[in-house]
Amino acid sequence: MAEAIGVASGIVALATFAFQSSVSLYKTVESFRSHPKRVRDLLIELDALSAVLAHLVELVQSNPDVNLSLLNLPLLRCGDICKGFQQELMKYAARSTSNHTSFRDWAKLMYKGENIDDVRNSLASYKATINIALTDTNLRLSAAAVGNMEEYQNLIQEAKEDLGARLESIDSKLEDLARKDEDQSGSDSAELRSLRDERLSTENCLQICAQLSSHIDQIQLMSKKAGASRGPSGSDNSPESVTNEGLQECKNSLAATAAKLEQHMREVMDRLLSKSKAGSSRDDVQDLSRLRDEWEAARQCLDICSRADSNLKENVSIIENYGTGDALQFMVSANGKVLHGKNQGLGWRSRQVGGYMSDESIQQLSRDLSVIYTSPQKPGVSTPQGASVPGEETTAEFKKRYGRGFTLSPTRMPNTPAPPRSSSN
Hints:
By secondary structure, the protein is mainly alpha-helical. The chain has helices at about 1-30, 35-60, 70-95, 115-140, 150-185, 190-225, 240-280, 280-315, 360-370, 395-400, and strands spanning about 315-325, 330-335, 340-345, 350-355. It has two domains: about 1-225 and about 240-315, no CATH class; about 325-375 and about 395-400, no CATH class. The protein is globular. It starts with a helix and ends in a 23-residue tail after the last helix.
C-alpha cells in the first residue's frame, strides 16, 4: 500500500505541475488583447487540457491504488511545453515594440523551432492520451463511468494516428540533427553515420511490428464478428479459435520484439547524444536531448493508447439490441467481460434479459422462455375456464427457479375499439 501511495503522489505532483502550467499559460495568452484564430484555437485547447488534468488529479487522489505511472513522462513534457512556451512568449513580448496588451507578433513567435500550431498539436496529443488513460481507468473501475463507447473508440484511433504523425516529425528532426553532427564531427563522422543508420533501421523495424500487429487486430476482429463454433463438451477447439490463439501468440511475440527494439533505440539515441556533445554546438545538443525526450514521451503515449485499445477489445462486450414486435433480447455476459450497451424493444410483448450469468443459466432461461411463449395469446383475449394454458406444465418449475410471479391484466392495444357493453332493457 505504501508503494501505491508513493506512485499516486508522484502522479499527483506531475499532474498538478502540468495543470498549473497550462492554466498559467492560458492566463498569459488571454491577457493580450489581440487573439487571431490560431491563438483562439490554442486557448480552446489549453482550456480542455486543464479540465482533463483536473480530472486526473481528482481520480488519483480518490483512488490511490490506481497505477498510472506510464503518464509520468507525458505529464512532465506537457508541463514543460506549457511553461517553456509561456516564458518564450513573455521574452518575445518584452523585446517587441508593441504594447503588452496589444501584442500582435503571434505569427513570428517560435518555441524550440515550432510555431503556435505545432505547440497546440503537441498539447492536443498529450491531452488525448491523458483522456484515454482516464477513460480506460474508469472503465476498469466501473463500466457505468464510460459514456459513448463509439466516441471512445474513435478517440483512441485518432490519437494513435496523431501520435504516429508526431513520431514521424520527431524522427525527421532527429535525422536532420544527426546528419548535421556527422558533417561537423570530422574523425567521428563514420561512427555517427553508423549510429544514425542504426537508429533509422530500428525505427523501420518498429514500424513493421506496429503494422503487422494492426493487421492481426483486423483479422481477429473479423473472426470474432463471424463467430466461432463451440466444440463438444463446451471446449473451444474450432478452427477459428485455434487460429485466433495462434494469432494472439504472434501478437504477443511482436509486442515483446517491439519492447526490445524500443530499448535498443533508447541506447542508440543515448550513444548518439553522447557522441554529438563533442563536436556540436550547445544548442544542437540541447535540441537533440529534447527530441529524445519527446520521442520517449510519444512512444509512451502510443503505448497507453494501445493498452486501452486492447483492454476495450478483450474485456468489454459492446451490445446494441433493437427489436420490434414479439422480440426476445439477451444482453448477458457469461465470460466475465464488462457489459456496455442497451436493450431497446418496441412491441406489446418485448422480453429483455440482461446481466451476468453462467452458460447453463442462459441456456435454461432461453428454454423456459421458449416454452412459455410457444403459443402466444393476443392481448384482450381471455382463456376459457378449464382450458389448458400453454406452458402450464412449467409453472411449478418456473416458480421453483424464479419465484411466484404474478399475472398481468390484459391490456387494450392502441386504436383498438373497446368490447361492446351489454345492456339490459
